[in-house]
Amino acid sequence: xxxxKITLKKSVIGSNEVVRSTVKSxxxxxxxxxxxxxxxxxxxxxxxxxxxxxxxxEVTQ
Length: 61
Known about the structure:
The chain is α+β, with helices and mostly antiparallel strands and 61 residues long.
């Protein structure tokens, strides 16, 4: 199964609480931090919600 490397590229300062909680649920806290998540529909939905703040890359292992 493929994995996604998700990087927070823009700050959540000035964003509403829904965006902040979505970014936090992805496991991201600070700008320029990265996490690797499984490629599931749930994670894809969260990414679409805050795609203007993220960089996403597919990682194959």
